[in-house]
Design a protein that fits this description.
single chain; 216 residues; alpha/beta; Rossmann fold; Arc Repressor Mutant, subunit A; 2 domains; 6-stranded parallel β-sheet; elongated
């Protein structure tokens, strides 16, 4: 029996747990796929290098568990998990990340993610967590959970966070306004409010602080 007391063999029908791996770092993804393939009760049915590709692979292969990198091109792991929850409710999701900031964990849990682990986890431990999640359980790295509790909630409203995210690449106010379907004056108000709440001297500093805390 594995340490988490979940599945340590194929289910009663002898069917392996079907796994999707999504990570834009090819070396990491390939190594995980090779290591998980050594587990008799796990089968990697698809791999993806971006958020949109992860969604396409999930739709095509309908995995039991999707192991998603937090930061991927096109859409991050939390956004992918949100889409999978709506489209493929039978697919359970978990996040692996090298940047386990408190806000990221809270976003992930709100999106229905059932596992949240750092990339430092061993392949054997990851296999155990995949079994636990497939069996209906949850797993959150204890250190990340403690950090999330101590950090508190984001002071930003959803709209402030959205506008601040759009400002992250240095786009001018007019462009942000067009992308957010807001007036330039409203964009300036949101950016000013976000900077004030974060005690930041400008929007660029506000973006940096919000990202450091996992609120974007």
């Amino acid at each position: 029996m594995n340490p988490l007391g979940a599945l340590d063999a194929p289910d009663a029908q002898g069917t392996p747990v079907r796994v999707l791996l999504a990570d834009d770092e090819h070396l990491i993804r390939g190594a995980l796929a090779a290591l998980l393939s050594l587990e008799d009760d796990l089968r990697v049915v698809a791999e993806a290098a971006s958020g949109p590709e992860a969604l396409a692979m999930a739709r095509a292969h309908r995995p039991d568990v999707a192991v998603l990198d937090l930061e991927m091109p096109g859409a991050d792991g939390v956004r992918v998990a949100t889409s999978l929850k709506a489209e493929l409710p039978g697919c359970r999701t978990m996040i692996v990340t090298g940047h386990g900031r408190p806000g990221h964990l809270k976003r992930a849990l709100a999106a229905g993610v059932r596992g949240f682990v750092p990339k430092t986890v061993s392949a054997q431990r990851l296999a155990e967590i995949i079994r636990t999640i497939h069996a209906g359980g949850r797993y959150v790295d204890p250190e990340l959970a403690a950090d999330a509790i101590s950090a508190g909630d984001s002071p930003l409203t959803a709209r402030e966070a959205e506008v601040l995210e759009l400002a992250a690449d240095g786009a001018p106010v007019a462009e942000i306004a067009e992308r957010a379907a807001l007036s330039p004056g409203t964009v300036r108000n949101y950016l000013s409010s976000a900077a004030s709440k974060l005690s930041a001297e400008n929007r660029h500093a506000a973006v940096r602080l919000a990202r450091e805390r996992g609120w974007l």
